[in-house]
User: What shape does this take?
Amino acid sequence: MDESPSSRTKWYIIGGVVGALIIFGLIIFGLYMLGDDDQSALERLRDIAVIFIVLLLLVVTILLAGITAGLIFLVMQIKDRVIPAIEELTSTLKRVKGTTDFVTEEAVKPLISVASSIAGVRAMAKTFTERPKKK
Assistant: This one.
């Protein structure tokens, strides 16, 4: 029988879950049997619940410590790599802005002088060619 990798993975997950449930059940049964003979079933289950709560608290504490370490590592990477890159980008943008200001000013200056000369010639031509208005 030729199974696809996804089907094989599905069976591994199902087997892992069933195995974990069997181990979990055996742990509960073992802890229940460790109780004293003078304890009621409810007292034994309470003790088992306290043990699992403590174990889960331990796991959560370890996970939170790992997450905190990961965040500290991320902050250090941002500090060491991203901030210098942002500073370099800022200086590059300032250089580009200065260059565009200079090019714009130098490119527009001749156009302004030509436009002002044309406006002066028009005004002079208008002065010579205009007839006085009669009142």
In short: The longest helix spans residues 41-129. The chain has two helices and no strands. Residues 91 and 97 are 10 Å apart (CA to CA).
